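Re-run with default settings, no changes from the original entry. Doing this only to confirm the output is reproducible before filing.
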Amino acid sequence: MKKRSISIIAAAMLVAPTAGYCFEGFSAGVNANFANGSTEISGTILTTATALGVGGQNSQFASLQGAYGFAVGKDLILTIGGTYGLGDVKSGKLTVGTSSASIKAENIWNVYVEPGMKFGSSTLVYGKIAYTGFKGKAEVTGSTSSDVDFKGWGLGAGVRVMLNKSMYGQVEFVQNKYDSETRSGATYKPNTTVGTVGIGMHF
């Protein structure tokens, strides 16, 4: 009788993560990101002291993702994680007369919290709050500085779906806004809108 009870408990433990809590625990994945970046640029080097809105530029880049999910209620999951970008993002270029200014984002990272709600056993809808940053290459009329570190906050939402008991797919959109930084006589204030399609594994 005792052996039978132990067998029943062990079987229940194996089934429970798939049936009810499949978004818990550690996960890792890779994402394809589609970014639209723009920057407000101001400075006398551009012959104006007024903030100038820079038209959006589109970029694509890959990123790695790691996260850990906690069950905080019957259908509530709190996920904590981070991502690291493997490519560059164009964040705008402006030309005024013979002067120009542009910025490109590299080493894009973020750490985030995602409060989510399960719908059924395989779908999680979540919001996202991220602390994010990147190393920017700011160029003004041919002079490049690669030491501009931007940091800011992102807000977004997404959907994660279990494709089987261990593999997931996700889609999300995040709006990132960064603090301003000044280099080479110009002040930059970037922001990006990023759409993500990703796939990964739960362990």
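The chain has one helix and eleven strands. Residues 8-21, 48-52 have pLDDT under 50 and may be disordered.
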